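Example S7 (structure tokens).
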């Protein structure tokens, strides 16, 4: 990606990762959700150490601004769960630090934080986190008018939806709150830590092992 200084830089070109839409990850997460009984949802949640770590992270950028942006994109509402309710930041943090996410995508998300704060300072003489709800809404609508801004917001919205729909072991959807809101019946058994899609051996190894077991049992 060419060096660009803001969401409105004419040198910006849509990155390859965004064009691909990461269909493989979405397919796997949808498959993991499956069908089953809501009563089977495990009470997975962040432990105290993980919660403390996220609290510390949100005291400084880039996580401070990312948290504020996620909450603005899916704010508290009487009609459904918010980004905070579904642990969207925890899910995004796992995407950025644990899951096999392309470096270009992580760089794009992080650069967007700088571009957003640069735009906020040029328009309001404040960092994004310091703005009122309406001012934040105005700025996000402003950057959505550019291709880079639209792609950045769509990337974050994509992860908000994943946080709402993925099994809780991926960091979001605490106690299945997203499924319950959508009246979705989750699959069973659900993946736990150590069984998530990015922790499984390659499919080729599974097929090879299956064939070897078959030959030994003949």
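Recovered sequence:
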């Amino acid at each position: 990606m060419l060096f660009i200084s803001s969401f409105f830089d004419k040198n910006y070109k849509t990155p390859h990762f965004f064009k691909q839409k990461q269909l493989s990850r979405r397919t796997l997460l949808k498959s993991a959700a499956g069908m089953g009984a809501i009563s089977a949802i495990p009470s997975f949640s962040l432990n105290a150490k993980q919660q403390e770590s996220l609290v510390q992270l949100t005291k400084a950028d880039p996580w401070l601004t990312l948290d504020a942006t996620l909450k603005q994109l899916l704010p508290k509402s009487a009609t459904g769960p918010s980004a905070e309710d579904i642990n969207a930041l925890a899910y995004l943090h796992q995407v950025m630090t644990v899951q096999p996410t392309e470096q270009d995508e992580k760089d794009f998300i992080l650069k967007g934080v700088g571009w957003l704060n640069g735009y906020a300072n040029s328009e309001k003489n404040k960092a994004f986190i310091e703005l009122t709800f309406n001012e934040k809404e105005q700025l996000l609508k402003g950057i959505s008018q550019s291709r880079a801004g639209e792609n950045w917001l769509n990337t974050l919205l994509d992860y908000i939806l994943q946080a709402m729909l993925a099994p809780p072991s991926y960091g979001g959807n605490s106690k299945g709150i997203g499924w319950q809101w959508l009246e979705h019946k989750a699959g069973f058994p659900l993946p736990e830590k150590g069984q998530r899609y990015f922790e499984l051996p390659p499919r080729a190894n599974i097929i090879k092992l299956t064939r070897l077991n078959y030959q030994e049992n003949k």
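Notes on this example. The chain has one domain: 16-190.
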